[in-house]
């Protein structure tokens, strides 16, 4: 009995000391990019880069629903830039969707791919995860990649860099790969 208790105490201390000593992980590659979402609002068809494609009962496809937009789904094809300027030359497109999925605050579920085609970067990076929009920074999973990002995985820290009503927002995406496949 006494031996069992001391074994448990020993293991608890061992686990505690191991987690205390864990070093921060070091990324094998990092990349910071911005993307810009202009939401269709009924009179910006030429300029819009995203569209509401689903709304809950009582809502419509030109205005985000009440109750923290719960039930809205938007599909986007957004320009990606190297800096925070909407008018900078795009280096690719962010393509995917977001789903507003909480009735009591603003959160969404993001699933999208960065399609990059420049001399610096060619290939795709795919992201998925929960986006608690009201938090200053949010981490989502980088689930995979192709081309220059063949078999890459990691974490992306997302920050809302600008927000203009329900028409425009800009996200800063700080990508850190911890798994970089290379020859
Ligand atoms: C497109 O929409 C954005 C965001 O609302 C705005 O800043 C920009 O001036 C618009 N561009 C044109 C050509 O209307
Ligand atoms: C969509 O809903 C909003 C708010 O309820 C309303 O102001 C707008 O006129 C509706 N748009 C259409 C096209 O029905
Ligand atoms: C990438 O850009 C080049 C040059 O503009 C073009 O020929 C090629 O089709 C593009 N590739 C993809 C996958 O879009």
Overview of the structural elements:
InterPro entries: Allene_oxi_cyc_Dirigent, Dirigent. Pfam families: Dirigent. The chain is mainly beta and 183 residues long. The chain is 11% helix and 48% strand. It has one domain (27-179): Beta Barrel (AOC barrel-like). It has 1 helix and 9 strands. The chain has an 8-stranded antiparallel β-barrel with strand order 1-3-4-5-6-7-8-9. The structure holds 2-acetamido-2-deoxy-beta-D-glucopyranose (3 copies). One 2-acetamido-2-deoxy-beta-D-glucopyranose (NAG) binds at residues 38, 47, 86, 167-168.
Q: Give the total of beta strands.
A: 9
Distinct small-molecule ligands in the complex: 2-acetamido-2-deoxy-beta-D-glucopyranose
**CATH homolog superfamily:** Allene oxide cyclase-like
Q: Point out poorly predicted stretches.
A: none
- Spatial arrangement of strands, main beta sheet: 1-3-4-5-6-7-8-9
Helix/strand class: mainly beta
**What sequence of helices (H) and strands (E) makes up the elements?**
HEEEEEEEEE
GO biological process, one term: phenylpropanoid biosynthetic process
Signal peptide: 1-20
Family: Belongs to the plant dirigent protein family.
GO cellular component, one term: apoplast
């Amino acid at each position: 009995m006494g031996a069992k208790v001391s074994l448990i105490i020993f293991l608890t201390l061992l686990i505690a000391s191991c987690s205390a000593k864990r070093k921060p992980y070091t990324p094998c590659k990092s990349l910071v990019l911005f993307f810009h979402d202009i939401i269709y609002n009924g009179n910006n068809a030429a300029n819009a880069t995203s569209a509401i494609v689903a709304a809950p009962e009582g809502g419509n496809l030109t205005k985000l629903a009440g109750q923290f937009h719960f039930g809205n789904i938007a599909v986007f094809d957004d320009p990606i830039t190297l800096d925070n300027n909407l008018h900078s030359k795009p280096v690719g497109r962010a393509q995917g969707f977001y789903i507003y999925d909480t009735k009591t605050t603003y959160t969404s579920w993001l699933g999208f791919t960065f399609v990059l085609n420049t001399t610096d970067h060619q290939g795709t990076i795919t992201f998925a995860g929960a986006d608690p929009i009201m938090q200053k920074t949010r981490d989502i999973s980088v689930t995979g990649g192709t081309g220059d990002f063949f078999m890459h995985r990691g974490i992306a820290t997302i920050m809302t860099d600008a927000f203009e009503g329900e028409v425009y927002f800009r996200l800063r995406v700080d990508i850190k790969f911890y798994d970089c496949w290379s020859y």
